[in-house]
Structure prediction request, 290 residues.
Amino acid sequence: MKITNEINYPASVLRAAKGSVYKPQKDRIRVTELISPPLHRTLIMKHWDNIKVDVDDMLISMFGTAFHRFLAGYEDKDNVIFNQRFDARITGTNYILTGEPDKFNAATGLLEDYKTTSAWSFVYGGKEWEQQLNLYAYLLRKHGYNVTSLKINAFLRDWTYYQSIQKGAREYPKKRFHVCRIKLWNQDDTEKYITEKINDFIYNPERECTPKEKWEKPTTFAVMKDGRKSAMRVLPTQHEAEEWVSTNVKSRDLSKVDIVCRQGELVKCLRFCDVNKFCPYFKGGVNGNE
Prediction:
């Protein structure tokens, strides 16, 4: 992987960026890799020497790491494990699962993770946090620790009050900081999940990512009325929108009503995938098509 510095960040920032990059290893799979689609890891390993990432694109994750290390200096350290790596062999395979939980309190059994993320990543990407924390819990149990609860501390770095109060912004978070209690799986269920995922990596390394894995935001059709900011109705097809208008809008108001296409988006592919240009299924454009 080549780290570029197109807008000339200081040399220390460039060195920090290079120091934060880890090449995937064939027989070791990180928790964050296992919860991702197999194709992502396959493309990274296949194209490692040709992947280019600019320091500017890495800065946000570097800020997150720096913020976490800053907080660690103020934590109560009694019975608490910070950023310690744990490994365990995946049963029936040659793979080692490896992960580095942010914070674990051995006295209370509470496993915590800090997320410094974007507001929209919180909305669409938070679904992977349950898998991530439960895999960390699995590793801790393999090393003799008793995990009793899971929690995410999420800081939304680009959250704005203005967006949170906009009409129609029901998905947008209402505050900058969120505490998310995460469901704790038992060890058997976690092992079943790991087995299913690793088999997917072994037998389907180049399969296309699913709509869920792409964080697909579908195209919708909004019925808009003059003088009104929010939609009267949002429907999945043009036909359904037209049917709704014919049934629910009075004839005298038809001239004030318009149907607006809200183009869908492959959120992860477009904004959060560092190998999309090598992907055989991604063609660019809003929906992943040219």
